[in-house]
Structure formats: structure tokens, C-alpha cells
């Protein structure tokens, strides 16, 4: 699986780098089996009958933070917004290969600075208004300009991912989008002031989907609770920390879709309670499956297991501006004190590998030559002594309240880490907060050390590095408050470089510097697992952790 992901990323990046990315509405159609005519079933297969009730209940460990996708970074938000909104480019259902979305084709000029997107016609937003080039322009200008009337910055909206992916905001020196020009009702041009190697991948990210302009007028800063897109499902209601209900978009522009009539995202915080609900038929799909439960589900004909491709990092992050974590020796000591192999044995059931870099293996520029910090409590003690804290100290270990793809049981993980640190004389007080509060307060820097992770959403290493460890992502995804000018400069170079080999070399150098500075403890790259009822068909887990449910169907 890892080799396949690497190949797909290389293929996608090669398309971008040679500026030949162009697609048509036929590009994502599945190939017909040899000897079978279109629409003809393969011999010996049976087509399951659709169930009368097409209501899918998807259970997860935590609630969404916001339904304004561009202003948040949590996967629980994008899992829902992926159903409501759509982007100009869509990734294939099981990879980061580029395919058509709201744009059915696009062209890139030889300079790599001008991108023209040809948009689908006849598409309407859920409020009945037309999707067109003006709507695309307004959305991108909203994210780029903090003074835009729909930026809602005074209400706390922060588009940090836009800033990191496109080199900043309007007026910033590094902001790469020079102009956005409406060439016609369904044709739009993006003009860059310098090349951006990940531009097309960025256009497929769920952060950059298109909201109805009328919805901004009607709802203002309450848009986060009143989402209006073009997607297969329409928003119905949101009961905080309980459920979000969506219904079928009867006017969806893709013929025959969606197949479901209703989707309910249900919050059930405990992993075991979710599995009990699945077994009893109360829910249809659950996220955050304990790896220990995979074997027994595999033996149950009424259930099925889904695996995502490894595409994440689970890590322990330091607030590097706070004592004693402003001392690199203390941070390195933590890296030597934590038994990652033991953590995997306890929590992951073999469905993970230890991490030594921020990006997963298989990504462009992954530096396999780096020597992973070994589990060595005695060396950890020596480093603590060199840092002047040989007597130990006490700190708060901020622990996620919800299971995530890279951390199926945060509480047990925190307890294991707590025990490892106790062995070298450090006392960790485990602190847990409600999910939205946890994300908000770690972004504000109220923590000492925190547990979190990151899943790739566009197949490009820049999404990991620039959001987690670039100085410009403070405040934002960089909750470590780590800013190394050399690292920052190299990341900017890599972002704007279009040569495949040069980009790879820059990222390899970045990883050497990060490894030495140790702003985090890279813990694991996991294979996230989900479970579902056997009557769920056409559910394909995406590496990004957010997949559209438009083709999912319940059968008898």
C-alpha cells in the first residue's frame, strides 16, 4: 500500500511539474472489464438490492468545530463539509490523482503562472442560485483579503491554511496569487507572480471549496452554522456534541447521485460504545476503530473493516517558547524517553510504524537517511542533566479528548507516555479539554506539551511542513510555536520550486534541521481503520480522511 501511494504522488507531482495537468469529465470514469459491454454485469456476480431506508448514520468520536471549512483544520469538520461543498478539482476516490470537480478541464501556460479553469454549467447552490466564475472569485478573495467584507476576521475567523498554501495573504510579499480574472460566466483565470509547485493539488483541497455568495449575504459570520454549497447533500441541522443531519440534494448536478437520502453524523465519544452501537444496528459506519477489535470484526459476516492508506503523523508537540521546552536538549530527551515501539504494541495492533520525520514515508523528499531517536532512558537522563533539569520537573500533558486516525486511544497513549517520562524523573499531569476548546487553546499557545496529529489532504509535503512547522503558521497549525529562519526560507523555496528533484532535496534538508531542533516527538504513522455494517456498499476511505459519500448505498 505504501509503494502504491508513493507512485501516485509521484505521478501527480510529475503532471504538475511538467505543466501538463488537464482533465476532462471522462478522466475519472472506471475502465470497463475486458469483454464486457457498458452497463453489463460481470458473469457470476449478484447485484444487491438497495434498502428501502437510505439513511446512513456515521458515528465519530468528536464533533465538528465549524462548518466553514477554510477557517478550521480539524478532520471532523472536513468530514462533514466534504458532503456539502465542492472544489474546482477533485481527487480520485482512493488517491491524490487529480480529476474534474466543479471545473471539468483546465489549462496551464508554459510559464506555469497562468491557470484557466473551465467550469461546469447548470450547477446550482443549495439555495437555488447559480454557480459561476464570480462565485469562485469571491470565495478566493474572501480568504486572501483580511479586509474583505466576508472574511469575518473581527469574529475570529482565521484562514491560516490559505496563507500557508498560497504564500500569505493579499499584500504579503510571498502571496503567489497576483490576479483572479473572470473570463466568462464559466471560465476563470488565476495569474501567479511566481511558480507554485503544489497549485493544482491545493485546488483539490477541501479547504478551498466554494460557498454560495448569497449565503454570505444572508448569514454573515454565522456562515459556519449555515453552510450552503453545491455538493450532494444539503445541511439540515446541527445539535452541538450530538449530531449533524444532512439530506439529499435533489437538484445535484451529477446524474443519479447521491444514492443516500439522509446522512447523520453522530457523536459517540467512546470507541467501545461506538462498536457496540454498530453491532446493535444503531449506526452504519464508525470511525476510530480500536486496532485490537479488527480481528474479531473480520470474523463477523455482518460487519466489515475499512483501512485508509498511511498518510499521517501522530506526534507530541512542545511549546518551544516556554521553559524548559525552549531548551533543545530537553526536547531531545523526550524523544529518547518515549518508547514508540511499545506504544504501537499497546495501541495499534501492528497497524502503525514508528515515525522519525514529519511527513510519512513515500512522500516527495522523505529523508530516510535520518537516524531515528532511539528509545534510551539513560541518554534521556544525561540530556536532562546537561539542560540543568536533572532533578526532573512537572508539566501538563494536553491530551486529545477524541480518537483520531493517527491516535485511536489518546488517553491510553497519554498514560503510556506518562509512564515513560516518569522513568526519567519527569512528572506529566494529563489534562483533557473539550475538542473545540482543545484546538482553540493549543492554537493560542496555552499549553506546555500537547498531543495531536496531521493527515495529508493533497499528497504534497508542503501541507505538512508549512502548516505544522513554518513560522508563518503561528497562530494556526504551528502549535509548537517553532520558527527557524533557515527552515522557513527552505520551505518557501520548496513551495515555489517546480523541479521535482530540487524540491525533494530541499525537503530532505528541512528534515535534517527539524530533527536536530526537535520541536516535536514524531510518534507514529498509522493505518487508520473504520468499521461498517456489511450492507454499506461503495464506501471508499480516502487517504485525506474525508471522502464524499455520494456513491455510498445501503443494501438489503
Overview in brief:
Helices cover 28% and strands 20% of the residues. The protein contains 16 helices and 21 strands. Residues 1-45 have low confidence and may be disordered.
Word description of this protein:
It is a single chain. The chain is of the alpha+beta class and 556 residues long. It is built from 16 helices and 21 strands. The protein has helices at 2-17, 75-84, 133-144, 160-165, 199-203, 213-219, 271-279, 294-298, 328-337, 340-347, 377-386, 410-422, 435-443, 461-468, 485-496, 500-517; strands at residues 55-60, 89-91, 98-100, 103-108, 114-119, 177-184, 187-192, 233-239, 243-248, 262-267, 285-286, 303-307, 312-318, 352-354, 394-399, 427-432, 449-455, 520-526, 529-533, 536-537, 553-554. Strand 6 and strand 7 (187-192) form a beta hairpin.
Task: Note the main attributes of this structure.
6-stranded mixed beta sheet; SBP_5_dom; 7-stranded mixed beta sheet; 21 strands; 20% strand; alpha+beta; 16 helices; ABC transporter substrate-binding protein; signal; globular; 556 residues; transport
